[in-house]
Amino acid sequence: MDRSIDVRSDTLTQPTAAMRSAMANATVGDDGFGADPTIQELEVRYAQLVGKPAAIFVPSGVMANQIAMRLHTKPGDTVITGRYAHVVAFEMGASARNAGVQFALMNDVDGYLPLDEVAYAIEVEGDHQAAARAIVVENTNMYAGGLAYPIEQLRALRASTSLPIHMDGARLFNAQVATGISAAAYASHVDTVMSCLSKGLCAPVGSLLAGSQELMEQGRIERKRLGGAMRQAGFLAAAGLVALDSMVERLAEDHQRARRVAEAVEARFGDTGYRASLCETNIVAFNHPDARGLVEQLEARGILAGTVAPDRFRLVVHADITDDDIERICRAVMEL
Ligand SMILES: Cc1ncc(COP(=O)(O)O)c(C=O)c1O
């Protein structure tokens, strides 16, 4: 049988040769003492890309989100976000455990928070209900199938409230490449923003959180409290610099390939309402009553995909997936 094709996640990407070489040659120091020049360079680079004064390097996207939760809230506060947001559904209750917050959940099937629902969730404070103290948006929205947050919705959300907004931009650069709207333009509407280096950008480990100088100083303390302060992690930051400097434009290839799979899915499963136009970036996700069964059938054909709910299928295209792999996936989809 042909080699198996793994499209369970874009986190599966292997570091590139340029990353391996940068890591081997990185100048490192103890970041606990502020002495790792490669980490500092990476933090400055990301802060510039998202137009914020400061940034911190953290081990994972979840930790970046969790630090943001702790920066913007106190235990007992309500956080407004999407029903299917990563910070709610895919972090094992971390926000309840680490920040002691509860969520007001908006209907985010289209990848953004409906403004009327957000306004209502804020207004209920006047009716003896818990006060909302922060908002989390996700860009691109993973569960919605990698949809970029509509910029006019983001602008209107920002204009509608003074609550702090955190952007889970695990795949913010996919949004930038798909829409032509810069990461900084997206981030100009939020207070804090995080992005992952270890997904489509192919770095082995790491995420970045950016915001004001004051918030990031506090963020360093929260990072320490969560056990995320690393020492000679400049080895990882070196790969991260390669990711930010040379891997962003490449994401367009993933998007084109994912669109071809999306067209096959529309051809085979159009009755579910799925349309290829719903694939804006590198994720193909659609509802099917037996999503897990579809995953099993694909596995029998040497293709590893996944589910994000019993009735929601997901596959994620990434740098290690070739045009030939895409042809095989499309053929297999048509056989399901
Ligand atoms: C939207 C989103 N946010 C956050 C994360 C968390 O990233 P990490 O796996 O680095 O903790 C992910 C990971 O898949 C994600 O898809």
Summary of the model, kept short:
By secondary structure, this protein is an alpha/beta fold. Helices cover 42% and strands 16% of the residues.
**Number of spatially distinct domains:** 2
Strand proportion, as a percent range, falls in: 15-25%
CATH topology of the largest domain: Aspartate Aminotransferase, domain 2
Give the radius of gyration. 20 Å
SSE series: EHHEHEHHEHEHEHHEEHHHEHEEEH
CATH superfamily of the largest domain: Type I PLP-dependent aspartate aminotransferase-like (Major domain)
What is the level-2 CATH architecture name of the largest domain? 3-Layer(aba) Sandwich
Strand order in space, largest sheet: 2-8-7-6-5-3-4
What profile does the largest beta sheet have?
Answer: 7 strands, mixed
Mean pLDDT: 97
Which structural class do the helices and strands define? alpha/beta
Question: How far is the first residue's CA from the last residue's CA?
Answer: 18 Å
* Gross morphology: globular
Low-pLDDT stretches are: none
**Which molecules are bound in this entry?**
pyridoxal-5'-phosphate
Tell me the helix content: 40-55%
Number of H- or I-type helical stretches: 14
**How many beta-strand runs?**
12
CATH class term of the largest domain: Alpha Beta
